[in-house]
Specification:
272 residues; alpha/beta; Rossmann fold; 5-stranded mixed β-barrel; globular; Purine_phosphorylase; transferase; Purine nucleoside phosphorylase; EC 2.4.2.1
Amino acid sequence: MSITKYIEGAAEYLQQRGFENPEVGIILGTGLGKIIENVEIEAEVSYNHIPNFPTATVEFHKGKLIYGTLEGKKVIVMQGRFHVYEGYSLRDVTFPVRVMHLLGIKKLLVSNASGAINLNFKKGEIMLIDDHINLQGDSPLAFRGVEKMGERFVDMSAPYDVEMNKKLIQIASDENITLHKGVYASVVGPQLETRAEYRYLKIIGADAVGMSTVPEVIVANHLNLPVSAISVLTDECDPENLKPVNIADIIASAEKAEPAMITLFTELIKHL
């Protein structure tokens, strides 16, 4: 069966369960699930019930697709995302973006937890992704037949939507939220970086590093789907003073920064 048929099968299943005419898709990163509390939920489905959908395997990723109303807009929220480090291909990782697009979303918002390479950024703060570096060693567009779903040679000169990013910067100013702007590097993981790798990432121009987001953004661009993304900075990656990372601390830092991210996303959705 072709990937197109798989996408259509998943979308049809969700339509039958009330996922009708969504306007905005939201992908939530590690430790960033509380925006759900702001959604008037109308339907929710576990990933393992959706035909052809991958299943989240990381314990702090919930694994649900949620549909409802947020600030007057119909939204689909991915509570839990997929990663290459779980053993998925990039086609698996980005499958939900294609399904949400077929269901009708017009904008995509993405969040992630990441480490701060730029030492002017502190953990517990947030960064608007202005550009990215793909270090995952593959592309979600590198498969036979991709040209039937969109332009094979996708332009990535401005992968993040300029207008939505401008609005997010303005909202941050209005709400007195510290919002850095920078370059996000996406690596495979799941191991964290060595001191030498952090030095390398700084040299090549990364301000933050994580294990997600870039594949979804590439596919959003393939679909001509405007996308914005925010990194919640959960640790400071100083190779000269590197201490062992505690995953519980990373989750705690994500939760500390989460309210600012929720404010930015909800206010943006209100003005879309």
